[in-house]
Amino acid sequence: MVHVQRILLVCSIGTIIWSWIVSFVVVPVPVRADMNDEHPINDDVLIAPSSAERRRRLTDDTISSQKRQQSQSEHNLSLLEKVHKEHLSLFTISESIVTLGPTVFPKPTHIFENENDIVTYIQPVHSNHRPESDAIFLFAAEYALQNYLVFLTTLRDTGYDGDVVMAISAMDWAKDDVKEYLQHDPHVIVYVVQYECYNAEGEAVESAKGGIRVCKQDHLFGRRKSGDGTIVEPLPDPRHLRTLQNSRYELYWIWSEKYHAYSWIMLIDARDTFFQRNPFDWVPRRQKQFDDAGGILLFFGENVDATRLGQSAHNRDWLTKAYGLHVAEALVDKPTICSGSTMGEQVAIEMYLRAMVMESDETRTVKMGADQGFHNRLYYSNKLANAKAIQKIIVQDQGYGIVNNLGALRTKPLDQWGNSKLLDIERATKEGVETNPDNVVKNMTVRNWDGRVSPVVHQFDRHAEFSNLYFKKKWREIRQRWDASKKLQAEKR
Predict the structure, then answer these.
(1) Measured between alpha carbons, how far is 136 from 164 in angstroms, rounded to an integer?
(2) DSSP class of residue 122?
(3) What does the angle CA 57 – CA 58 – CA 63 come to, to the nearest 5 degrees?
(4) Domain segments of the chain: what residues?
(5) Distance CA 247, CA 216 (A)
(6) Do 290 and 159 meet the contact criterion of CB atoms below 8 Å apart?
(7) What is the pLDDT of residue 226?
(8) Is-contact 457 446, C-beta < 8 A?
(9) 230: helix, coil or strand?
(10) What whole-number distance in Å separates Cα of residue 357 and Cα of residue 372?
(11) Which of 34, 249, 369, 462 has the fewest CB atoms within 10 Å around its CB?
């Protein structure tokens, strides 16, 4: 049985009467078999009963080997724990930009006049939300079929049977193969988003891709025109032109309202993510739930040794454009927290989404990727923690939690980082001998630094070996499974 522990790092700030909690979830499980064998040796199986001397010698050798393995394993885990603690100490708030609470984030509908008459207008074109379910939210506009196949198939293969809620473009929904695949899953809730985009010259364009593109999304919200709400007038987008990366948080907020307060929700990038374990198996669920207690947020860091906010030109630029040089310099040595992967209980996620929309409204930043600047500033300024709906924020360092962010590790092969336990490569074999010179990769497993399989692998496409595996090999295997499934269903009809 896997036990769940938490490492809490409490940082007091001056004479401020509240405290900020930076926690980390550690879910220890038995270490890998190549690090330590936790099961006792069965001598009756290993040793012929006709030789007592042979039995004693082998038993002594086995015990000695086990002790050496255990000692090495304990040493390795001790080093991991030391590094982990050193990293966590860096995730404290920045006193020079701290926000004194409490913090109130309005609903995204606050921008409309007579807000009480505003309702959600956009509706799913396929399936419906299950309020009691866990859910995964993604914005997957203008993707190829292979992206949907890799994301959804690897997710469902983990045993996750909760909701998957996605926004796609009208162009994607018009593709017969994409529509057929998404409609086959009864718990994939699909929203078709009507967006209008403009290029750097201000010309209207159909696609959000290609250089600097900013967009608006009409008809997300509507106004009640009758007392019973049966007649709703769709409304144009009242906000400034912005990237789809920024506007997705409005959709996520709409969806978050569909779930119970303590359902768990994941926000994740779809294009560069695959799954190896059910991500919700590791969340810290609470046995007792109270409506006014606030919820838990899970944030996921990028590798501290490979990058910091000040070392990345992109992160520094996002912070500077949105908040000015003062904030960028205050966070120069802080670890990067990825905005492309976030989890939390609904009550906390809903408030987080309000905050992300508000940061976009206030800064009016249109840089691609600027939402990561919002995400880090909200955390390191303590602005999020002051919201009543957020009980605490747990930051999981890269390689120690549910989501393993690999993007910052692209400067060298993955199997050369750290203790070399990050990646297992299974190569195609012939009669037990590795095939050469092709050296074909059959499968790769990403692990956390302690040897556990990472439930979620994010930013995998930054690495050529993963892109080749998933977009040249595995997606074809997944496509063949899908085609076989369709054929079987057709034969049954």
Answers:
(1) 5
(2) -
(3) 100
(4) 407-492
(5) 8
(6) no
(7) 79
(8) yes
(9) coil
(10) 12
(11) 34
Measured between its terminal Cα atoms, the distance across the chain in Å is: 43
Question: Which of 217-231, 254-268, 463-477 shows the lowest mean pLDDT across its residues?
Answer: 463-477
Phi-psi map region of 220: left, alpha, beta (phi>0 left; psi -120 to 50 alpha): alpha
CA 121 to chain centre: 28
Give the CA count within 13 Å in the CB-facing half-sphere of 94: 19
The interaxial angle of helices 145-157 and 176-183, nearest 10 deg, is 10
Cα–Cα distance for residue pair 253/38, rounded to 1 Å: 46
| 3 state SS of 442 | strand
- pLDDT grade for 332, boundaries at 50, 70 and 90: very high
User: CB–CB of 85/26 below 8 Å?
Assistant: no
Using CA atoms, how far apart are residues 198 and 214, in angstroms rounded to an integer? 6
Note whether 207 and 197 are within 8 A (CB). Answer: yes
User: What number is the average pLDDT over the span 311-324?
Assistant: 96
In this prediction, what percent of the chain has a pLDDT beyond 90? 61
Query: What's CA 326's distance to the chain center, in Å?
Result: 29
pLDDT digits (tens, 9 = 90+) for 406-444: 999 988 888 788 777 788 888 776 654 454 444 577 888
Buried b (16+ CB within 10 A) or exposed e, 429-461: eeeeeeeeeeeeeeebebbbbbbbebbbbbbbb
CA gap 54, 47 in Å, rounded: 8
- The dihedral built from the CA positions of residue 55, 60, 64 and 67, taken in this order, carries a sign that is positive
Contact of 262 with 232, CB cutoff 8 Å: no
The identity of residue 129, as a single letter, is H
Quick one: CA dihedral 403, 307, 208, 110, positive or negative? positive
Distance of CA 445 to the CA centre of its chain: 17
Centre a 10 Å sphere on the Cβ of residue 375 and count the other Cβ atoms it contains. 23
Decide: 207 and 172 in contact? Cβ < 8 Å: no
Long-range CB contacts for residues 75-79, cutoff 8 Å, separation at least 24: 76/35, 76/419, 77/31, 77/450, 79/419
- 335-379 pLDDT per residue, tens: 999 999 999 999 999 999 999 999 999 999 999 999 999 999 999
